[in-house]
User: Which sequence fits this backbone?
């Protein structure tokens, strides 16, 4: 399993970024996909997930600003981030897991497969 994130960068408050995660080595359409982030000195935080029925869930602070989607033809999952805030800064990671077929609820811990991350920096 390989996950490769891209699309991070530096923006000012209120700006937008779209992260991409390309996956390979697994049955993409049968897998939970998640986006997580980690700020310096803080623990990893779950940001958004999408299940095999394209049902999405979000961390409270990003509701209405972030949108997660997947393109099964290209084995990619995206995180579109709008109205970015300084507190959105951090390393963003893509994660995947089939959870032994239990993919209806993807808002959960225990993802086994991770990318190396892409840095997002939001400045005021």
Assistant:
């Amino acid at each position: 399993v390989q996950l490769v994130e891209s699309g991070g960068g530096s923006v000012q408050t209120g700006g937008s970024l779209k992260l991409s995660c390309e996956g390979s080595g697994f049955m993409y359409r049968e897998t939970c996909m998640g986006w997580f982030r980690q700020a310096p000195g803080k623990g990893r935080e779950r940001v958004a997930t999408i299940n095999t029925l394209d049902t999405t869930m979000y961390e409270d602070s990003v509701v209405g600003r972030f949108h997660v989607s997947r393109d099964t033809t290209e084995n990619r999952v995206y995180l579109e981030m709008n109205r970015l805030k300084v507190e959105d800064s951090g390393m963003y990671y893509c994660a995947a897991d089939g959870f032994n077929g239990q993919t209806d609820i993807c808002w959960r811990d225990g993802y086994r497969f991770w990318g190396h991350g892409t840095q997002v920096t939001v400045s005021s």
